[in-house]
Each structure stands twice: as structure tokens, then as C-alpha cells.
């Protein structure tokens, strides 16, 4: 699988934002940084005639601004605002302009190490609020008592709605050792947390042994190094005598596709197709396993509505080859890949460039993957991100299935 360890790294952008800084979130961004200054410039010139009407319109508005606007004009902000609006006009939730100032933080997301308060956020569109998806274990937010389901309503005294999640996360991030005041709404109570920003290691791969020598591995994102952590954790459990394995991908919003492919490589037979990537011209690329599997025991994979992107790549491949029983609920349904292009001025464009299909050529975008065994959590569970083992009917079903193997 080392052949895939090139700059081509895919990152999920679901709706999940990690404020450490995290976004998705939100989650399969292809990190293709092959756009050089000259190469991109030549393409831009070749396409410029298509933009004549837009440029003419902008010039008209600029003339009105220059002749009528009373305030001072910030040329940089005008340019950035024009680009953001232009990209937003595509109407694609995953395509996004990233300013030069934000690129360093954005690129750092792939490492899984962040300076911040250590919390995942999601935009709750029903109430238009920023909801805490989960605090990161050991991070400032968790240590201070922030909980899944809390709504972040203000940062340092400035209020934010759900649609302003990016602005809020930009406000929350900062230098290590500095503090930020977060106001949250929990039920009908308003709470205030003053948190010191720290370097947070996110998404650790966690594992344990359950009854009857069943191994259990869970992780919430595919970050840089996740596959190696997964392998190490599996080998630790294997040395303790596990006979079967549960891989918990519930609430895993995705991440670097190569990490998901590497984990598939641990399980599937050599030379198996893991996924197909298809671009706008119907050019197709297939990703295959390169090694013999190291995991040859019965597997149950847990999914829910927050299982997305890279998680769905792994789930789809294991399901198609019948290498795992999928238990839980239908997955999120993000079957498109974004690539991140670095522009000459240092800014970036994250753009949807391909869709992917499972080994059986199943399309999952906006469809999701149905589990083999559909199991819902009981109505008493109010937060899918924080489920007591005694109420976890999905985990209990997985254990039941493996006990029969």
C-alpha cells in the first residue's frame, strides 16, 4: 500500500468540524498539490473568455462602489469576498475556497494534531445552532465538562448561529496557552467555559477485549497514521487471544481515504478492488489491495447515520466481499471525493472532483450503505454519541453474532 502514500491524500468534509481546529468533519478531501504557478496560470488564461460576463458585471459594481461608497475600501477583502461568492455559487456543500491565512491550519488537519479546545462540532440545521458532536478525550473541553449535545452559542462574547460554524471555529482556534470563553446552551441552562487552548492529539484508536475473547476497536476519524495505530491495536489484542473483532465506525465522519484503504488491505485478499474512482469525464481508477491479509477472524462492523465517506469506503468493501457483517443503521451517504488545489497566491480550493463506487460498483452518494442487520438504539438513548453499554443494543447484537461464529 506504500504505492498510494503519495501526495494524493483524501480528506473527508462531512458536516463535522473539529475545533482544535477540526471540521468535520465533515469528511474525503483529495490532497492533490500538483497545481504549480505556471500550470494553473495557463489554465486560467485558457478559460478566461468564459468569465467575460462575470468580469463585466464585477467591473460595473466596482465602478458604483468607487463613485458612491463612503467608507474605506479593503482590496484584499473585496477580492476574497468575490472568490468566496463565486465558489459558493456552485451550490456544492463540499466545494470551498480556503484563504491563504487558513491554509496552514487546514493542511494540519490531516495529521490529527491540533491546537485548540478539543471538540468536534456539527451544524444542527433544524435549530440553526452549532452542536458539540463530541469532546476529545483528554482535551480542554472534556476536562472542563463540555458534553455531546451542547450548543455553542457564543465565543468570547460574540454570538454565532449554525450557519456561522466556520467563523466560530476560526474564533475558537488560536495559539497554545491562550484562553477562549465559550458559552453553551445545555437543555434550558446556559453555561460558560473558559478554556486554555492546548495541543490536542485527536482521534486515538481505542481497543479492548469484550466477553468471549471478542476484540473491540473504535476510532472517530481516519487521520494520518490511523491505519498504523489500528494495526498496532489489533496486534495487541491478537496477542491477548481474541477470536473475533468488532470495528466500531459509528460517528466516524471519515478522513484520509488512504488510511481507510490501508485498513481494508489488512482484511481483504491480495489484489482485491477496494473502490473505483470516477471523474467528470467517466475516467475510472481502481484502488486495489497490495498485500496478503493479516486479519483472518470473524468481523462485525458497527455503523450509524454519522458513518461517512472514508468509513463508508471501508464498510462498503468489507460488505461487498462478505468479510464483515454490518450491524446498526444506514450510513450517511457521502460518495464523492474532493481534491485540495494550492493556488499561486497560497490560497486553496477544495473541489469535488470524483465520485467513488464500492467493489460491486454500488453508488452510495446521498444513498448510504444498508446494514446486514438493522439495529436501532432504544428510545431512552438521547444522544447517539454517548451511549451506556447497558443500552447499546447495536454493540450487544454484534456480540451476539460473534458468539455464534
Q: Average the pLDDT over all residues and give the rounded result.
A: 85
Helical proportion, percent range: 25-40%
> In CATH, what is the homologous superfamily of one domain?
2-enoyl-CoA Hydratase, Chain A, domain 1
Query: Could you say which structural class the secondary elements and strand pairing correspond to?
Result: alpha+beta
- How many helices in DSSP terms? 10
The appropriate CATH architecture of one domain is: Alpha-Beta Complex
Number of strands: 21
CATH class type of one domain = Alpha Beta
The parts where pLDDT drops under 50 for at least 5 residues are 1-44
Quote the distance from N terminus to C terminus: 30 Å
